[in-house]
Amino acid sequence: MAALPVPAGPRQPIVAAELTAEQYRAIWLRNVYSRPPGDWPPPVVDPSVKWVELGLRPAMKHPTENPYSEEKAKLGRQLFFDPRLSGSKKITCATCHSPDSGWAIDWKTSFGSDPGVIGRNPPGLLNSGFSTHFFWDGRADSLEEQARKAILNREEMDATEKLVTRRLQDVAEYREKFKRIFGADRITLGDVAKALATFERTLVGGESRFDAFLKGNTIALSDEAVFGLHLFRTKAGCMNCHYGPNFSDNQFHDLGLSYFGRKLEDLGRYYVTGRPADVGRFKTPTLRNVARTAPYMHNGRFHLKGVLKMHNAGMPTLRRKEHQKDDPLFPTKSPLLRPLNLTNTELHDLKAFLESLSEPGLL
Ligand code: HEC
Ligand code: HEC
Asked: Ligand 1 in contact with 196 (CB < 6 A)?
C-alpha cells in the first residue's frame, strides 16, 4: 500500500485551525501577565507620572504613636458599632460604613444626622489604612485625625467631644477597657480615635481573584478580566492615577465633576488648601472592592457603567460662561484625561477586571 502523502510546507499545530484570533490573544496576554509584575510590559502613562506597579498589598503598618494591640482593635470595633458616639445616639459608624456593603453604603449619599446636609458619598473603609489622606478632599492626614473629625463632623456622627467622652465614661466596662489599654483614668476623644483607627487598620479584605492571580493562580482571572487588566494599564490610561498595590496615587485630581457655579457645587481639595489650582480636585479612591461600593465618585451620583462611559468620553469638560470669564477659581480638568475610544467589549472587559478586585472575608 502506498504511504499517505505528507502535506508540503511546515506543519501547523492542530490547535491553530481551531482557535480564533481573539482566543490566541487571550492565551498570549495570559502568558504575559502570568509573569511577575516586574516583567509586565510598561504601562501607558504620562511621562510626568511616578507610577508604581499594581501588586499585592504589603503588611499593614501601625504608627508608632498608636501601636497595634488586639484588645485596642477590639475596643475600636465595639466603638464603631456604638450609637453613643453619635449626637443623636441613633447612628453608628456602621450606619454609613456597613460591613455588608464593603464598609460603605448603598445609598446615593448617606443621610447624615440631618437629611439634606450631606453632599458626599461615604467611601468604603477596606484598605483605608493604606491611604495617606482621608476624606474626599484629604482634610485629615491620619485615620486617628479622621476618626476624631468623623465624630464631630455634621455629615457623620455630629457629636461633641464632651458628649461622647461623658457617655462612655458612664459605662464601667468602657472605663476599665480604656484604663487597661491607655493607662489613663479619664476617657479622651484622642484615645477613642486611636482605638477606632486601630480597628480600621484591620479592615483589610481577603485575597481577591486578582491577588490570587498575582500569587500564581493563573486561572483565577477570566479572559475578559485579563483583557481588562491590560486595558487598565495601557489604552485606558487608568494607571495615570490608580496605581500601586492599593490602586491609588494618594493625590487629588479634577475629573470635571465639581459642578462649579451650579447647585451641586463641591470645590473639593480647594476647601483645604485655598489654592485655586485645587478647585474641583478630589482624592483618587482605591479600586479594590470597587464593585461593592456603589454608588461612585465624591457625590455618589454614578454607577460603575456610568463612570466607565464618562472616562471613555474623557470626562465632562466645563465651559466658562460669560460671567466666569476672568474667574480665577474656574476649575481645570486634569490633563491626564482624554477620550479613550474604547469599544463596548473593551468597556465590558475593563469592568470585568474591576470586578476581580473584590475581596472576600469582609466581616
Ligand atoms: C451619616 C453617615 C456617616 C457616618 C455615621 C460615619 N461616616 Fe465616615 N464618612 C461619611 C462620609 C459622607 C464621608 C466622606 C466625607 C467627606 O469626604 O467629606 C466619610 C468618610 C470617612 C472616612 C474617610 C475614608 C477615606 O478613604 O477618605 C473614614 C475613615 C470614615 N468616614 C470613618 C468613619 C468612622 C470611624 C465613623 C464613626 C465614628 C464614621 N465614619 C461615621 C459618612 C459617614
Ligand atoms: C486623572 C486621574 C485619574 C485617571 C486617569 C482615572 N481616574 Fe478613576 N478616579 C480618579 C479620581 C480623582 C476619582 C474620584 C473623583 C471624584 O469623586 O470626583 C476617581 C474615581 C474613580 C471611580 C469611582 C470609585 C469610587 O469609589 O467612587 C472608578 C470606578 C474609577 N475612578 C475608575 C477608573 C478607571 C477604570 C480609569 C481608567 C479608564 C480611571 N479611573 C482613570 C482619578 C483618575
From this structure: yes
Which residue's C-alpha comes closest to atom 1 of ligand 1? 112
Q: How far is the CA of 94 from the centre of ligand 1 (A)?
A: 9
* Reported confidence tier of residue 99, pLDDT bands at 50, 70, 90: confident
Which residues, 6+ apart, have CB-to-CB distance to 103 below 8 Å? 97, 124, 125, 126, 203, 362
* Cα–Cα distance measured from residue 204 to residue 125, given in angstroms and rounded to the nearest whole number: 9
Q: CA 356 to CA 6: how far, in whole Å?
A: 47
Pocket lining: 296 vs ligand 2, CB cutoff 6 Å: yes
Tell me which of 287, 305, 333, 349 to substitute to probe ligand 2's pocket, judged by most ligand atoms within 8 Å of the beta carbon. Answer: 287
Q: What is the rounded CA–CA span in Å between residue 100 and residue 91?
A: 16
Q: How far is the CA of 189 from the centre of ligand 1 (A)?
A: 16
The amino acid at 231? L
Q: What is the mean predicted confidence (pLDDT) over 71-100?
A: 94
> Which residue owns the Cα nearest ligand 1 atom 3?
156
Ligand 2 near 270 CB (within 6 A): no
Q: Residue 1: pLDDT band by 50, 70, 90 thresholds?
A: very low
Give yes or no for a contact between 165 and 186, defined as CB atoms under 8 angstroms apart: yes
Q: How far apart are CA 96 and CA 92, in angstroms?
A: 8
C-alpha span between 72 and 5 (Å, rounded): 79
Cβ of residue 54 lying under 6 Å from some atom of ligand 1? no
Which residue bears the cell 468597556?
A: 347
Compute the radius of gyration of the chain from its Cα atoms: 24
Rounded to the nearest angstrom, the gap between the alpha carbon of residue 218 and the centroid of all alpha carbons in its chain is 25
pLDDT digits (tens, 9 = 90+) for 289-338: 999 888 899 988 899 999 999 999 999 988 888 888 889 999 999 999 99
> CA–CA separation, 39 vs 133, rounded Å?
31
**Amino acid (1-letter code) at residue 135:** F
Task: For residue 337, count CB atoms less than 10 angstroms from its CB and return exposed for 0-12, middle for 13-18, buried for 19 or more.
Answer: buried
